[in-house]
Every structure is written in C-alpha cells, then in structure tokens.
Amino acid sequence: MRRRGTGLLAVILASLAAGAWLPEPGGGPPAGHGTHEQHGVVRTAGRPLAGAEVTLLQAGNDFGAGARTLARGRSGADGRFRLTYRAPEDPDAVLYVTADHGEPAPSHLPAERRVRPVRLVSMLGTGPRGGKVVLNERTTTAAGFAMAQFTRGGEVAGRGPGLHNAAAVSHNLADITDGTVARVLATAPNGEQTSTLRTFNTLAAILSGCTTGQTCGTLFALAAHPGRPAPRETFQAVADIARLPGNNATRLFALADRRTPYRPQLDKAPDAWTLALRYTGNGHELDGPGNVAFDAAGTAWIVNNYEFNPDPRQPVCGSRILSRLTPTGHDVPGSPYRGGGLYGVGFGAAIDPRGHVWATNFGFQGTGCPLDAARRYRSVSEFAADGRPLSPPGGWRVGGIVQPQGAVSDRQGTVWIANCGGRSVTRIPGGDPRRAANIAPGGDRLVKPFGVTVDTRGRAWATGNGSDNVMLLSPQGRPLDSVTGGGIKRPMGIASDTLGNVWVANGGAVVAPCEGTTPAMVAEAVEDIVTRHVDASVTLVRPDGTTAPAPFVNDGLFLPWGIAVDGNDTVWVANFGGHRLANLCGARPSACPDGLRTGDPISPAGTGYTSDALERNTAVQVDPSGNVWLANNWRTVPLQTNPGGHEMVVFIGLAAPVRTPLLGPPRHL
C-alpha cells in the first residue's frame, strides 16, 4: 500500500507542477487534481483518420484479466484526439491507446462480437506520459509483436516483469511520438545491415491494405492459426502473425501495398514474418558472447569469449567482463562488470535463487595472445545481483574445475558445472564453494561434458560430447545412468521441460573445443558444411532415461548447439551454422499449433526461422516477455585471431514467456 500511495502522490505532484489542462468533451473526467491529458493523432497509410473511437487503457495485471478503460473519445477530421484521465493507483501500470474504425460486424451478433475491423495501437508503457502519441500501422505492428504473448481478443494483459518489459521493447521498433521507425531498428547494427527494417515496413504495408478498407477479410483469414478462430481486427491479427510467423508467409506478402509511405520494403516473401533485433550494449563490449541468463527483472547477463576488438585480424585474449543489458538492449548503469577471476568464459552462465551470477572461466582466447590459458581455465566466477564480484581475483578454484562450459543452478541454489576438459561435473551445494565436489563417473563414461540441466526431480543431466551420451546424476551427485542411442551424437546443449523430460541438441559434426581439441580444429571441422549435417538432430530423453525411437530431424537444424524450452514446453534450438533458429513441438502437443505432434517443426521445416542478423550461434534462451535471445558467438567466417561475433540477436514476441531466473525446468510467467 505504501508503494501505491507514494506513486499516486508523485503523480499528483507532477500534475500540479504541470498545471491544469482543458478538458475534452466526452474524453474523460474534468481536468483537475490527479488528472492527466493524453493527446495525439490517428493515421492510416500516412493520412489522418477521422471518426476513430480512441480509448486509453490500463493493461490487465494478469493473464486473462481484462484491460481497464481510463478515457475514451474520437479523432477529429485531422485525426487528432485529446483524452483526460485519472492516473491509475498503481504507478507501474502499463498504459496503451487504441483507435477503432470501420464498419462493425453485423448487428445480429452479440455486442461483444460486433468488433470494428481496424484497431490501431500504441503502447505508452508505465505511468502517465506527456507529449503527442501517434497511432498508425507501424506503431500497431510494433505493439502486436512486442505484446504478442500478452494479447488475446485485442486486449493486453499479463504479469510483470514480462508485460512491462515488452511494452518498453515495442519502442525499439516504432517511435510512438511520430509514428516512424524507432532509432534502434533504423540504425546500425540493425537498419540497413539486416532485413528486419524492411520486414517491419512490409508488415505495416500489409496492415494498410485493411486499414484503408480493402483486404481485411483476407488478412484475418491468413493470420488465423490452424484450427483456431480468425482474428477480428488488425491488432490481434499482428499478434497472431507474430506467434506463428511461418503461417501463410507467402500469401501474406501478396497483401503488401508498395504505394504506402512505409519504405524500404522486402522484395520477396520471407520464409517467416519474424522481427529480429541486434543488441550490442555500449557497442564495444560483446566479442564472442557465449551464453545469457536472465535475472528476476528480466535483465540479461551475458558472458563473452574474447576481449572486444572490431578487427578480426587483431589477436585478442580472453574477455574479463560480464555484460548486463536491459530488456531493451542497453547497458544497465554500472555495467559491464569486472573482477572475480573472469577470463574467456564459454557456454556457462547461470543465476541462482539469490540472484547471484555464475560464469565459467573456460579460458577462451584468440591465436596470438601471449597468456597461458591453462593457468586460467580452472575456475568459476561469482557475482552479486548488483554486479559486485564475490569470487577472489583468481575465481573459485574448487571441485576439480577444468575447462568448464555449461552451468546451471537448481531451486535449492546448488550450482552444477560441466567440466569439458575434466570428464567430470562439479557440484557446489547451496552455492557454497567450500562444499564443492567433483563427480567423475570414470574412464570413458563422460567425455567432454558440455551442457548441463536439472529436471523436475532435482536430478542433473550432462551431455558427453566426446562419448555420445547423456549422464544422469542424482540430486546429491551420484551417477545413476548413462543414456545413449536415440540419435545422440556429439551432444552440446541440453534443456529440461515441465514434464520431467530433457531435450538434447546433437551437434553432429561439432566437436567441443576441449581436452586437446582447439577452437581452430572446430572451425576446420565445420568450415565446409553448407547443408544440414546428417547427424544434426534433437533427442528427447524421458524421465526414466529412455529415448524417443528416433531423433527429431528437419532442415531448421544446422549444427545444433544451444537448446531451450519455453513456458509452453516448446523447444528452441540455436544453430552454429545456417543462420537459423529452430522451434519444435514439445512433449505437450496441446500447446502446439493444431495437428502437430511431439518433435514436429513449428518453424518452417525447410529453413527454420532464418535471419541475416544471425551469424554462428551458441546459446538460445527465452526471457519473461517471450523474446528469444541468441548469441552471435562466432563470425560466419571466423579468423582465429579474433573469431567472435559482436551481437545478441533477439526475436521479438516469438515464444511463451518464462519466469526467471531459470532454475532447471521452465516456469510459465
């Protein structure tokens, strides 16, 4: 109650400082203490839209909760509107504006079904904001994609922080103050460097066919998911496209109107209507990002292989920084962080229940670095939630750590680390390094352990990239079983689902760069692979250790590396080749598009979700807003002096949100 009271007092004081506003007839309560004004303009295809019903809403605070109307009015002949409203008691409430227009459905239908086909939207974000807001096809596309996982029936609702972060991300796509492309999308490393800007403009053009009264019926039919009701207005149509972007992609492209002001546009239909943004933080920190972990607020903690240098010909040593980005891709104040023994972290990034961040020091460095990596690859670094290093300058050198790669924390705070160069797993009970223990099954039972996850029973599963198996460990660390077969071949990443299964990404031709294998050898092994390798696949391992009869295979899998499970138990795979992201139906087919079974591709079977924003990707993770993050770990043609890529790539609104930090199996937000 104190927080709400304080927030309301701040709003009242702000409104008093700004002075009183003239009320708009029919636009809300009379102006006065505690009231605010929102004005703006509605446009379609660059022209003012008169007579639109404009509504200011407060998003529902939980899934299924209804949005609350704060004010309502109409746009004038010039498309302009002015609304006066009382600020919500909750200072963190997410606000948005809609503009409805067009002939409603036939009068014989119930009132709740008599929906106008044109709904334009702009996400305001949290708290009252001054200045003009524009509603047009661009702002609607931005809102529909960013809020795709929080939009049902044309209304926005959901839980924080995912809902709030998604509203902020929408401003990376469209500038709601003038209806143009937002700076993040319009400029490098996005802008002309990828096709996302052209895709975004083409989507806005597709909408304009409906907003100008020509193609609404066709748009709604093509946006509909198989076996589900078609959307009835444009905002929901965009959200439906965002959630299943490969559906009717070519036929939707045919609706684009090149005469609209939304340029540049695509020259041909994409394989799917995804929007992928590149994030680079301060622009000179990411070099070979290996993995990412999200804290409770949804900020992204990113580990790097190499120290930053934009020139791939310049030799670089291992990275000594831990990056932390906001959900919108900017540095959190005070980051990146240093110390704690960080050096050349690879695939290991985990956050425990206390919010402590763990990064495994693999000792990556480019050729020509004078340092001895063997003196640096025997530790893990620990950081507090505010970025302070908690481990000593040499890192925690405990539990027999050797060339560590994957890491995970369970819900009790026990940290598990895969020792790629040690044929073992390190277990740190309760995150207490003094209690660390090394678990070595012995002999060739676990060679080149790379990825590690924890299942619903608290058991740990580690992939053996060099032994073609997955090792199952009890919650106390006792080896229980070695799982082989089912297509497990050169396994890399591993992830668990809510039903107790684990999912394994089989790299096929990818040999983990440890225990005598160098990164240069990895580069040579994958250099000439230009089509999907025969052994590239995903294996489902059931809780009892049995596997599905055959691995899951499609052309969206191209040197699979990282793997993640979202809040609906669908499976996401990052690929070290092919510039593509794959999405598979998980063990709950009811959460998949109609007609799909476990292991079937949700992304286009022949391509996956391709993007020229991608390079060679290692990690994939899902944030609380349903955005899918991938690490551009290596350049497409990696020079071993400095092979690292320089971006995180974020597919907007594509997956079911996940509650973070991720502590083993995913939990829906």
From TrEMBL:
<dbReference type="InterPro" id="IPR050952">
    <property type="entry name" value="TRIM-NHL_E3_ligases"/>
</dbReference>
<dbReference type="InterPro" id="IPR011042">
    <property type="entry name" value="6-blade_b-propeller_TolB-like"/>
</dbReference>
<feature type="signal peptide">
    <location>
        <begin position="1"/>
        <end position="20"/>
    </location>
</feature>
<keyword id="KW-0732">Signal</keyword>
<protein>
    <recommendedName>
        <fullName>SMP-30/Gluconolactonase/LRE-like region domain-containing protein</fullName>
    </recommendedName>
</protein>
